[in-house]
């Protein structure tokens, strides 16, 4: 969790404690029907409140006029750290639509992914298994078909002039069994066909490549204005110059280690051949 995020959450907790000053934490918890531990965690910045939590807090502490202020603080806090729990409350489709807006706003897009094929290059069947896995993980709405359709519509951007995709993946992504073998085989065939597209430059970092930094989280860079970084619990949306600079340097190191063109095609073909003999 980012330091800036935690500082903002701690500050929000201090404001909640200030509003509670006229009653005990035990009394507030009883009034809200919450365990006392929840009140304590919210006030000390160890748990993130929901908008409903904040409105209830404002009313129960006798400060209903503070509700809008508290929710605005929460919105600011989550502008950089967007928990999957909240993002997926309505399913994967709205998340895909929000991302499409950022793709459409960008001319140069860079990606690093070490664990699976990036969404922009996924087949429908591969994407469906990925969405299903994350819906199981986060126990979210299972809107796989709508999410897949939204992702495939976004892929049309790859065929529009004026936009360039620089995608780098680790060779491990070619072998990850996140779907049945026949689905992965079709996905690898799709990757082989992408190599050579005018708008896409696909690099594969071989297993034996010398790496400038250990492979870690997948991320996208939208021009040089936004980095979106994925983690298990949340996405980080980073728009400050220093953070974007870090991810640009990471991407550059992975790019320098990657194979392109015919060499990348051979890595995809090797993964495909191994799949056939497995």
Description:
The chain is of the alpha/beta class and 278 residues long. It has 2 domains: 3-79, Orthogonal Bundle (434 Repressor (Amino-terminal Domain)); 83-277, Endonuclease, Chain A. The protein is 54% helix and 13% strand. The chain has a 7-stranded mixed sheet with strand order 1-7-6-5-2-3-4. Strand 6 and strand 7 (234-238) form a beta hairpin. Helix 11 packs antiparallel against helix 13 (261-277).
List the helices and strands and how they pair.
Blueprint: H1 3-19, H2 25-32, H3 36-43, H4 51-60, H5 67-77, E1 81-83, H6 84-87, H7 92-104, E2 108-113, H8 124-138, H9 144-155, E3 164-170, H10 172-175, H11 181-194, E4 200-205, E5 219-222, E6 226-230, E7 234-238, H12 241-257, H13 261-277
Parallel strand pairs: 2-3, 3-4
Antiparallel strand pairs: 1-7, 2-5, 5-6, 6-7
Helix pairs in contact: 1-5, 2-3, 4-5, 7-9, 8-9, 11-13
Task: Provide tags for this entry.
278 residues; alpha/beta; 434 Repressor (Amino-terminal Domain); Endonuclease, Chain A; 7-stranded mixed beta sheet; 13 helices; 54% helix; 13% strand; elongated
**Unreliably modeled segments:** none
Distance between the termini: 40 Å
Task: Compute the number of structural domains.
Answer: 2
Biggest sheet: strand arrangement: 1-7-6-5-2-3-4
And the CATH topology of the largest domain? Answer: Endonuclease, Chain A
Global geometry: elongated
The residue-averaged pLDDT reads 92
Rg, please? Answer: 22 Å
Question: Helix/strand-derived class?
Answer: alpha/beta
Main beta sheet, described? 7 strands, mixed
CATH architecture of the largest domain: 2-Layer Sandwich
Strand content: 5-15%
Helix content: 40-55%
């Amino acid at each position: 969790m980012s330091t800036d995020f935690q500082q903002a959450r701690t500050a929000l907790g201090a404001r909640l404690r200030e509003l509670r000053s006229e009653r005990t934490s035990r009394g507030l918890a009883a009034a809200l029907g919450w365990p006392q531990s929840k009140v304590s965690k919210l006030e000390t910045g160890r748990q993130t409140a929901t908008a409903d939590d904040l409105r209830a807090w404002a009313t129960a502490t006798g400060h209903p006029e503070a509700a809008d202020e508290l929710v605005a603080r929460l919105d600011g806090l989550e502008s950089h750290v967007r928990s999957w729990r909240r993002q997926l409350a309505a399913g994967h489709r709205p998340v895909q639509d929000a991302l499409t807006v950022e793709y459409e706003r960008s001319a140069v897009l860079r990606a690093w992914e070490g664990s699976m094929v990036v969404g922009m290059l996924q087949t429908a069947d591969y994407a469906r298994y990925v969405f299903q896995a994350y819906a199981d993980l986060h126990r979210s709405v299972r809107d796989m078909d709508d999410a897949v359709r939204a992702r495939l519509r976004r892929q049309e951007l790859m065929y529009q002039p004026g936009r360039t995709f620089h995608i780098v993946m680790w060779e491990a992504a070619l072998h990850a069994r996140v779907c049945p073998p026949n689905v992965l085989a079709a996905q690898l065939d799709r990757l082989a066909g992408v190599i050579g597209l005018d708008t896409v430059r696909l690099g594969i970092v071989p297993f034996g490549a010398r790496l400038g930094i250990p492979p870690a989280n997948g991320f996208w860079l939208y021009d040089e204005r936004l980095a979106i970084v994925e983690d298990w619990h949340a996405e980080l949306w980073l728009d400050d110059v220093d953070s974007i600079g870090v991810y640009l340097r990471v991407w550059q190191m992975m790019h320098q280690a990657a194979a392109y063109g015919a060499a990348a095609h051979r890595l995809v073909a090797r993964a495909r051949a191994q799949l056939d003999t497995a």
